[in-house]
C-alpha cells in the first residue's frame, strides 16, 4: 500500500513539475515577443522622432508650397543638396588658393569639371542629387509653383531649418555689440542656399547623374559661403 502511495506521489510531483515548466516556457516566449514588439515600436518611434527633428510640418497658408514642403521628396532633395555641398566644401577646403582659383575659372570647362568630379569622388552624391531632383519634379506639385513660390519654398526652409539650428557663436570681439555681423552672415547663408537649390531645379534637369551642372551650382554656392565668411571677418574687425 505504501509503495502505491509513493508511486502516486512521484507521478503527482512529475506532473506538477511538467505543468510548471510548460507555464514558464510559455510565459518566457510571450515576454520575449512582447519585448521584441516593444523594441521594434521604440525603434520606429525613434526614426520618426529623428525625422521630425530634421523636417518640420509646414503650414504657410499656400496649399501648393505646403504640399511640396511636407513631402518626402522635398526632404530627400534637401538632404542630397546639403550632402553634395558639404562634400564639395570638405574637398575644396584642402586646395590651395591657386588650385581653388583654377577650379572656379574652369567651371564652364565640362572636361575639367568631369575630371574634378572623379578626383573628388563625387559620383554618388551627384547620382543621388539627380534622383532627388527628378523625384521632386515628377512626384510632387513642384512644377506648378511659380518662380516666386519656388524661391519662397527654399528660402523658408533655409531660414527655419538650415540655420536657426546653429547657435550664434560669440567671440570676444562680438562681445562689444557686433552680433550684427553674425546676423548679416546668416542672411547671406540663407540667400546663398536659396539660390543654390533654386538653380539646381531650374538648370539641372534631364542631364543625367554625372552632368557637371549640379557640381557647378554647388561650386557657386560654396563660393558665396566663402564670401559671406570673409565679409563676416571684415565686419567684426572693422566695427
Question: Strands, helices and their partners?
Answer:
Elements: H1 2-54, H2 63-69, H3 72-92, H4 97-105, H5 110-119, H6 123-138, H7 147-162, H8 179-203, H9 212-237
Helix pairs in contact: 3-6, 3-9, 7-8, 8-9
Organism: Bacteroides caecimuris
Protein name: Lipoprotein
Brief synopsis:
This protein is mainly alpha-helical. The chain has nine helices and no strands.
* Ends distance: 109 Å
Number of DSSP helices? 9
Number of domains: 1
Q: Helix and strand succession?
A: HHHHHHHHH
In terms of per-residue confidence, which ranges show pLDDT below 50 for 5 or more consecutive residues? 24-54, 167-175
**What fraction of the residues are assigned to beta strands by DSSP?**
under 5%
**Overall 3D form:** flat
Q: Average pLDDT across residues?
A: 78
Helix content: over 70%
Protein name: Lipoprotein
Organism: Bacteroides caecimuris
Question: Could you characterize the architecture of this molecule?
Answer:
The protein contains 9 helices and no strands. It has 239 residues and is mainly alpha-helical. Mean pLDDT is 78; it is low at 24-54 and 167-175.
Keywords:
single chain; about 240 residues; mainly alpha
Amino acid at each position: 500500500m505504501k509503495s502505491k502511495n509513493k508511486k502516486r506521489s512521484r507521478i503527482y510531483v512529475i506532473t506538477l513539475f511538467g505543468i510548471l515548466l510548460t507555464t514558464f516556457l510559455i510565459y518566457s516566449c510571450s515576454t520575449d515577443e512582447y519585448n521584441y514588439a516593444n523594441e521594434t515600436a521604440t525603434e520606429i518611434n525613434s526614426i520618426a522622432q529623428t525625422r521630425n527633428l530634421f523636417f518640420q510640418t509646414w503650414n504657410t497658408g499656400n496649399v501648393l508650397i505646403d504640399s511640396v514642403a511636407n513631402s518626402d521628396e522635398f526632404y530627400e532633395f534637401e538632404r542630397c543638396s546639403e550632402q553634395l555641398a558639404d562634400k564639395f566644401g570638405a574637398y575644396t577646403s584642402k586646395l590651395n588658393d591657386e588650385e581653388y582659383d583654377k577650379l572656379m575659372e574652369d567651371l564652364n570647362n565640362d572636361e575639367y569639371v568631369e575630371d574634378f568630379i572623379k578626383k573628388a569622388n563625387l559620383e554618388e552624391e551627384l547620382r543621388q542629387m539627380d534622383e532627388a531632383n527628378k523625384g521632386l519634379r515628377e512626384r510632387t506639385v513642384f512644377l506648378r509653383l511659380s518662380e516666386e513660390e519656388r524661391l519662397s519654398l527654399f528660402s523658408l526652409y533655409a531660414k527655419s531649418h538650415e540655420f536657426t539650428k546653429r547657435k550664434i557663436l560669440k567671440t570676444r570681439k562680438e562681445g562689444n555689440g557686433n552680433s550684427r555681423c553674425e546676423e548679416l552672415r546668416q542672411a547671406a547663408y540663407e540667400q546663398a542656399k536659396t539660390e543654390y537649390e533654386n538653380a539646381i531645379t531650374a538648370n539641372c534637369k534631364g542631364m543625367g547623374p554625372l552632368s557637371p551642372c549640379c557640381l557647378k551650382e554647388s561650386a557657386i554656392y560654396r563660393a558665396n559661403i566663402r564670401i559671406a565668411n570673409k565679409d563676416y571677418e571684415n565686419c567684426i574687425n572693422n566695427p
